[in-house]
Amino acid sequence: MRRGRAALDRRPPWLLPVVRDVLGAYHRPPLDRPRELAAFIAVAMERAPRPQVLPDAPRVRRWFTPEPAMGRRRWPVPDLPSLHAVAEFLGLSDGHLAWLSDVRSSERSVPDERLRNYRYTWLARGERPPRVIESPKHALKAAQRLVLHEILDRIPAHPHAHGFTRGRSALSNAAEHVSQKVVLHADLEDFFASIEARRVYGIFRTAGYPEAVAHLLTALTTNVVAMNAWASVPRPHEPAQLAAHHRLGRRLATPHLPQGAPTSPALANLAAFGLDRRLAGLAAALGGSYTRYADDLTISGGGLLLSRAGDVPATIAAIAAEEGFTVNERKSALMTRAGRQRVCGIVVNDHPNVARDEYDRLKAILHNAARDGPAGENRRGVTDFRAHLLGRIGWVESVNPSRGAKLRARFAQIVWE
């Protein structure tokens, strides 16, 4: 009431009913939501009782600017109540921060790569649409890393998410599904690109950041792919691939999580929290286990899940759709103990292990490289073949240390020029 009397040249008859409506709707001052409050007041003004003879509308004699503050903080994130506070937090000027957040929406249309904040490359993926990599340039990447380490790392992912999470890995993900009668696998299509800016905004708002700050942090961590960069990605010829290509193009043309930004994995995990919660509940109802590693969904269990295995994939797809994701049905699989059960490339029939044929293939490469030299075994022309082999050996070691030790002993016999 005091603010209304100070702002207007006289007290209008609708002011008291509007104040009562605001106090009834908000039990504490919505200092982090000035836009929402303004919209609520506008509706309350329309609904307020008016006298039959309407007086002239009061004039504004003093304008007040919002004084934003943090909302409820569920996690120990930094206190950033204003855009200037974000700029100071990131060590940037207000103008540089506006440039990195692309307030003019120029990333999509500007033709000169030097005027963009991202560089674009694409990777062919056989029968699937290419993977478009959106790599932020140095200044934006440095800002995103601060957001990741100081904000997002303090917000926990769902306990059933094993990808991009400290202390969890592909091995911990696979270990949840060892010695099960049936393993169901599903894959999410265009995982990062399908997560829109509105969902990222919701994450920052839930963390307690005011509306304007949440919008700014969303702009810093989402992107719209440049038109000429997307035009350079080759179009597939098969109808099924062409439809998937068009879906990817539509997703990349709207603000989304860029695959290549350091903040995207953590934000993707948080955006999938509802999906993880619901699928974990589905698995528990069927007496099974659920995990997610990035875009790979896995549910495993015993007899009850096996008896319902024909219906569960459709239920998974329906839940994913309600949570804003699309299941790639071509990559879904049902694996029983009668065959090889694999989760994230790890065999889980009896214990986590590397597939025998993969192990034998790598062992043969190391044997031939030790006998005849490594050059003849580098058939794909890998730039650093030595590091490539060490990486593959390290993967085997992480899953099966004894097999890894045998491979490392063979590697030590190779003579490198």
Alpha-beta classification: alpha+beta
| Number of helical stretches of at least 4 residues | 18
Radius of gyration of CA atoms, rounded to a whole number: 27 Å
Low-pLDDT regions: none
The strand count comes to 8
Largest sheet: 4 strands, antiparallel
Overall geometry comes to: elongated
Distance between the termini: 83 Å
Strand order of the largest sheet: 4-5-3-6
Helix content: 40-55%
Helices and strands, in order, run as HHHHHEEHHEHHHHHHEEHHEEEHHH
Can you give a write-up of this model?
With about 425 residues, the chain is of the alpha+beta class. About 45% of the residues lie in helices and about 10% in strands. It has helices at about 1-5, 15-25, 35-45, 85-90, 95-100, 140-150, 170-175, 195-205, 210-220, 225-230, 240-250, 265-270, 275-285, 305, 310-320, 355-370, 385-400, 400-410; strands spanning about 120-125, 130-135, 180-185, 290-295, 295-300, 335, 340-345, 345. The protein has a 4-stranded antiparallel β-sheet with strand order 4-5-3-6. The chain has a two-stranded antiparallel ribbon with strand order 1-2. A two-stranded antiparallel ribbon has the order 7-8. The N and C termini lie far apart (about 85 Å). The model has no long low-confidence stretch (mean pLDDT about 95).
